[in-house]
């Protein structure tokens, strides 16, 4: 063992990122590359009656305009368009026919010799439509809410559990009650890198595709199915991803269009979406929730009602886990939950950072704050009164849950004990100061994955797995795990990812990559180590000849006896013993289902926030926030802190700034730019503090990690909304809390 | 973006000559708004006359005490210019409240006057917009109009033709300072008071200003009155920086020796098709001392006739409160911007 | 209900293409002769014609700062200027900040080193723009406090939310840099 795990190490891909050498999907060159530009529907629903491309085609250098009328034949069955993250339903197929299902739908691809020419030619395409009435407003369509269809996706997103106890009766008799309606607007992921695919058309018709994706193999699967190609003819590469936050969990339409064009023209094609077009695919669905809580006078919550209605498209049933978070956090005996969806004329929603979690948890955590005021109990105290070591949605104990310690350390760091509960009791000039808190929670899953490890003849270790690094630090932590397992310096270890030719890994989402791919890397390195050990034993006069596997350890590039470090064989000597060939291992790691199944596994957080609200003008600043995280073993506190801080910034954004606003008259998102879709800028972000609480868990996975991609955001919105209440006495249940809601 | 030809003259007469000779030609300086709109297919010039090489990069003191800002001086160089910071801190403050450092390094003083509205519908060619396509209707009126105008939207018909706002911060300060725009054109040179430079939409929302075809802004003159002790620019927006104003207020006060207001100027941004002033409201302050009730009266008067269209109705009350706050700040001589939260780590 | 859509598109002249012309751009001290039409932005010239993809396209409308480069030492959004307008100017991109071999950490610009040290990035896509912007901020010399840095770095959006670390990195480099340097 070396001991990189747990150290705050700088990223191994840092130099590439700060020098501009890191290459993203639209940055790979190809000989005779052509450029595709997407034409988007200007109507929301109806049919294309005519599409006039002659003017565009008249320009020299315009190679093709592909529309539903002239597109090549593509796969017929819905099944062929199902990617690994497809919800139940019939996936959207670009250019399928003349039907328009949502505003901004791609209706043509112009391919030209240059980007500028393709963009210009796209502006010359004239489209006639026959419009049909559309429905895009969740609020006015609640009467159409229905249960979602179930499918494969339901395994990861089960419907809420059946009612327990008798909510109605117990609620009616509760001395303390609160109820409220909570809602938020749709949101778009808006990673900084716009979706792009560079499809390189090889001489033999094979495709090498540089795609922006959270799963190179998911994109590969999609292309092979939709275009009836063999896996060996489609390779998808994605070494760097300029942010994704869930948007890369499904292949986006530029991939389909670029592949179609490349095959049609037999040339390499790059298609990059515009920022406006980044608002024309999946998004966090608008959701409306109702919560009612009943408690006894000691603060024990006995009755919980939580329902949610989310939007979906007319073609797929996207779902989230929303009300189920209530019993996952609070152990009430009388619980009724409900979850429904309303199909609207929009694109299918798509998992966006902490999908469902940062919808359901902020609602229940706001309601809990309301209950604290109803009862006159401190909000932290109320949470401790209702603390549970069991997940009552599944009725299982948690494999570990150091939330109590998060509360303690977070409250101490923040100074929560000094809080005067009275709203409006703290001020600085015109600014009202408020303190709020919230619990956060996110599941800690592990999926099956494979990895390959090679110790080269010159003693370098190369480890690969087809996962992704969307900024999460995958490159770095996998390098740490591999280096530690084989006792090598990190400089001698190269971890590669983002290539469909690499060993199988699941799409990179759900905060499961550290656990999933990390376990695979650990296993493959251990098994490679066994091979190296056997080779070391074969060396004539090997000091390890009689040793057993359990007797040795891997330290400083050597295999040595634990009891006698002088008895050692170097890894170089071991590989030299392999007849001039590298030593190679490919392994699979599977979750220990038998061990895990009796436990609920989750990361937790306690979040404390201070806001300043201008009492006249309604402007809100989050002046400081503390997130105390129980996220299992922290592999790299430096990159881990970045993930949590990023999540906290997202929480500020969700609570105060971001929303995709649709003009329902025309069924179109209108603030489709980064000037008008507000996400925080540097000046919005002040003092953010992260505490990692010690948490040991040998059930969750062999590494004891829980994943940190989502837990940072989940607790923030309610902590902010509760702080705004504490500052102003105004309870805002509709996110984002823009200044007009405070006035 | 359509294809266009390009030229780069190096004197004003040549530039004015070229713009008149070419069909659908436009001047380009910083390009920050024009290229943005060309990419959106909102603007489609056939020829661009690059004026960056014209000798308009000066900031000169005027004999009678004012300052002449060359049209091609960047917003950043203007805001940080010693004489602007000393004599017209209101202008500096307003400029620095706008856009981003990168954009301020590109955008020019002349170009800032020509910024077009940020109305979502104006920018989106899939929607109706009388400013972009006269006669097509106004999508904002019945649509999403959070950022839209509450003042000066009247047209000859019953419903407004356009409820777009002017997006500039700089121009709000220029309006408060009574700046004068200098132009050269095919018919020679002329000056336009800033109050007359931008216009209300009326029945011709496609016209943002009163400049004539072929005319080129060469400079902006700031009068000798500095207002450099009691002033503020208060900008309210949806995030702390790099966002357009929901409402902004430029206040310039001259106090007499007894601390009473001798002259008041109040210009509003984000509320109308042009920076908004109301002399009658300003006059209420003359000869008065600071008084919140009076300030509120002034605000009521300034917002007289204001009308909301749904999502933007909150702006009426917001503007009133912002006016009161800005008057308070200016009167007190505290020059802080809207962001009251400041960390004081000195580097 | 529908709003009235434009009945007919505004009359525009028949499509035509303005030919390319040789344009010489001095990028990181090296002249690059490119064949460009006037409509090519500086950003696209860098990425698609000079194959310097370190400068990023995050919105193409001056609303994110990912395309920030230094022109004559000042930071600008390369997406909102035409390449042809920058002939004769000194254009510096992220590729030109390190001196010598970029694989050697010692050759990195202090701002690049500080970004690595402070983990002032996650996905890395906004990073070249952030770093060029930070170098521009120091060239401009108007930031006197941490809150000044924050305000004057607000033209660079980081969707990953690395802002506190970005500010830390810049603050450290500023503190280490002599005032008159």
Automatic annotation (TrEMBL), chain A:
Pfam families this protein is in? Ald_Xan_dh_C, MoCoBD_1, MoCoBD_2
Annotated InterPro entries: Ald_Oxase/Xan_DH_a/b, Ald_Oxase/Xan_DH_a/b_sf, Ald_Oxase/xanthine_DH-like, AldOxase/xan_DH_MoCoBD1, AldOxase/xan_DH_MoCoBD2, AldOxase/xan_DH_Mopterin-bd_sf
Q: Which residues form the signal peptide?
A: none
Query: Looking at the record's lineage, which domain of life comes first?
Result: Bacteria
UniProt GO MF annotations: iron ion binding; oxidoreductase activity
The segment annotated Disordered runs over 144-166
Q: Which residues form the Aldehyde oxidase/xanthine dehydrogenase a/b hammerhead domain?
A: 19-133
Record-given protein name: Aldehyde oxidase
Automatic annotation (TrEMBL), chain B:
- What are the record keywords, sorted? FAD, Flavoprotein
Q: Where is the signal peptide?
A: none
Pfam families per the record?
CO_deh_flav_C, FAD_binding_5
Ranges annotated as spanning the membrane: none
What is the phylogenetic placement of the source species in the record?
Bacteria, Pseudomonadati, Bacteroidota, Cytophagia, Cytophagales
Q: What is this protein called?
A: FAD-binding molybdopterin dehydrogenase
Give one GO term, molecular function aspect: FAD binding
Asked if the Swiss-Prot or TrEMBL record annotates the protein with the keyword Hydrolase, the reply is no
Name the source's superkingdom. Bacteria
Enumerate the PANTHER family for this protein: OXIDOREDUCTASE (PTHR42659:SF1), XANTHINE DEHYDROGENASE SUBUNIT C-RELATED (PTHR42659)
Q: Where is the FAD-binding PCMH-type domain?
A: 1-227
TrEMBL record, chain C:
One Pfam family for this entry, by name?
A: Fer2_2
- Per UniProt, residues of the 2Fe-2S ferredoxin-type domain are 21-97
InterPro entries named among the record's database cross-references:
2Fe-2S-bd, 2Fe-2S-bd_dom_sf, 2Fe-2S_ferredoxin-like_sf, 2Fe-2S_ferredoxin-type, 2Fe2S_fd_BS, Aldehyde_Oxdr_Iron-Sulfur, Beta-grasp_dom_sf
Specify whether Oxidoreductase is a keyword of the entry: yes
MF (Gene Ontology): 2 iron, 2 sulfur cluster binding; metal ion binding; oxidoreductase activity, acting on the aldehyde or oxo group of donors
| SUPFAM superfamilies registered for this protein in UniProt | 2Fe-2S ferredoxin-like, CO dehydrogenase ISP C-domain like
Sorted UniProt keywords = 2Fe-2S, Iron, Iron-sulfur, Metal-binding, Oxidoreductase
Q: Which PROSITE patterns match?
A: 2FE2S_FER_1, 2FE2S_FER_2
Q: Which PANTHER family match?
A: OXIDOREDUCTASE WITH IRON-SULFUR SUBUNIT, OXIDOREDUCTASE, IRON-SULPHUR BINDING SUBUNIT-RELATED-RELATED
Q: What is this protein called?
A: (2Fe-2S)-binding protein
Organism source for this protein? Arsenicibacter rosenii
